[in-house]
Amino acid sequence: MRLTNRTGAEKLSHFELQPLDIAVGDSGYGYRKQLASARAKQADVVLRVCLSTFPLEHDNGQPFDAAAWVLHQHTPFAEWQGWCRSDGKRLRVRVIASKLPADKVAAARKRKQRKAQKAGRTLRSQTVQLAQWLLVVTTLDASWSASEVLRLYRARWQIELVFKRLKQHLRVADLRCHRADALEATVRALLVAWALHEQVAAEVRAALPSGRADPRQPLSSWLLAGLRVQTLREQVRGTWTLARLRACLPRLVRVVVSSPRNRQQQEADVRAWLHERLRLVVPLPQPI
Q1: For residue 209, what pLDDT is reported?
Q2: DSSP per residue over 151-172, as a string?
């Protein structure tokens, strides 16, 4: 774990990326230096970018006007391949543009308007027009289709839901300590608690007879997190054990597994797709 200030957190250099890893990040990571950091470790990236801060080049080294290219598209989907440059090195990239639904366009334009007003500047018309597009840069090769790259980026939202579960179930608010060592110790303790939660949650998920991977009858990760954190609290107090949780699990199925639904749960759908697409081998949970 690394403790940073509010301006230094979003850097891929913080992560111990390995060859063949895929780093998926929002626009906070969408800069050439972040991409170059991952490529130096032989990892690939899928990053949402702002074209004004991500210059691109043609094969011949001439600048590519990506904004004009996007705004001249008459289809809801487009792809371009070229280069970016960081610290004198050229890096091969693909740019994928996908038009957003009307409701998301309106929300995106409102966010940009608020941001411009807060900074005391006027919003350019080109910025308003570009707000209707999701723009992603990736270093993945052609074995990943453009639609798969976009699906992979959209799966990134699942980490935001993990943060939400962690904050609310562990009751994390603004930390009162002000010294760096006290802050780091507090955050580490919270992460240890969450790691203990995840270990048992994996066992519970694997033990359930249904709902583990079915997007139409999914396991509720929110309810499972609440159940597991409460169990952890009771373990610390000495009034509840894991043996008791395992004994009660057959009765808890109806609580944490949804009834059949018409709309697929995004998390279960993403899990199933990634396991199939990446041929992930899921390790069996160890006895607790």
Answers
A1: 59
A2: HHHHTTHHHHHHHHHHHHHTT-
